[in-house]
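Hi R.,

Here's the chain you asked about this morning:
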Amino acid sequence: MASSLRFVVTSALLCLLAGVGCGSSDGDDDPGPPDPTCTVTQREAELGAALDAVVTDADFAFAVQRADGRRYVHNRGAASLATVYESASTSKLVTAVVILRLVEQGHLGLADHPQDHIPNWPITAGDPLRDLTLAHLLSFTSGLTSEPLCLNLPGVDFENCVGAIATANAGNGKVPGTEFHYASTHMQVAGLMAIQARGFTSWTQVFDEFRTQTGLFPTGTYDLPSAGNPRLAGGMHWTGAEYLDFLVALRGGTLLGEAAMAELLQDRTAGSVSIAYSPVTAIGEEWHYGFGFWHECASATFNCEAGVRISSPGAYGAYPFWDRRLDVVGIVAREGALQTGFEGVSVERAVRAQVEAWNNCR
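And here is the predicted structure, written out as C-alpha cells:
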C-alpha cells in the first residue's frame, strides 16, 4: 500500500478510535436523531468535496443508499457505477448468499459434508477433514488451506480442481472449525456441493438460477480464470450499480429469510477459533468472519459487536459494505493494482463522518 494511503488509513483509524469527528465503526454508539437544521443537498456537497480530497491511486465510484431509499453517487475520473469491475474477493459475499438461498430452499444443509454430494470425494474415513461441513466451508474454517495451481488455470475442469483441493489437503491434520484461514479453497468445494445438489453441471447454471429468481446481476459473471473453472471466492465481474442493488436487496430482506439471515450474520470465528491467516493484519486490525464477509473492527484486538458493520473488500480496492447501525449500504467501486485491497476501506473511512451527517439529514 502506498505511503499516502497508509496515512489516510492511519488517520481514519485514529479518528475512529478517538471518536473525534467521525462515527463509531463498532455499532456501540447511537447515530443520534435526524438533524433538523441541515439540507440534504448541503450534506451531499460536503460529502462530494470530501471524496474529491481523498488521496488514492485509482479512479473510483462511491455510492451509498440509506433506509429511506435516497442514494448518493459520486464518480472520480473515468470510474462510474456502470463500469465493469474485476471483483476479486467481493465475490465471496455473493457466493455465500447464493449458496445460503439453496440451503433455505432445502437443496443443501449447513451440516452437510462434501461426500454427501460429491461422488468420489477423496478424503477418507479417519482423516479429521472428513468431518468438515458446508458451514465450515462458508466460514473458511474447513481446514482446506493449501491452494493447488488449478484454481488459477482457465482450462481446468471445475470438478477436477475441487478433487485436487481435497487431495492437496488430505492428511494435513487440520480439525474443521478450529482455525480460520483466508483462502479460495473453501468456496470451490462449497460451490461443487451446490452444483451437485441442484443436479446442475456448472456454477454458471447455479448463478443463472439465482439471477432469474432475483433479477440481480443481470450482466454479472463468474468468469475468472474462466467460466468453466470460475474462482467462486474471487472470479466475478460486475458493475457497481449491480453490486449496490445486491446490497440493497440483502439489507431489505428479499434475498434471505429471517433464519437464513441469522445464519449469515453470525460471527463464525469467535471463541476458540484461531486466526491462522488473515489479510486484515496488513492494516493492523483484527476482524472476524461470517459466511463470505468480514465483521469489521477498527482495533488490533477484536472488541466490536459482530454483525454491525459487515464488508467484503477485494484485492483491487473495491469495497462493498453494510453499516447496520446506520442502516446504510454502500460501495467503493474501483479496480486498482493487485494487493491494494484496503484502499477502498481507506476511501470510505476518510468520508465516514460526512456519510453519517448525510444519513442524519432528512
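One quick note: The longest strand covers residues 328-334.

Cheers,
M.
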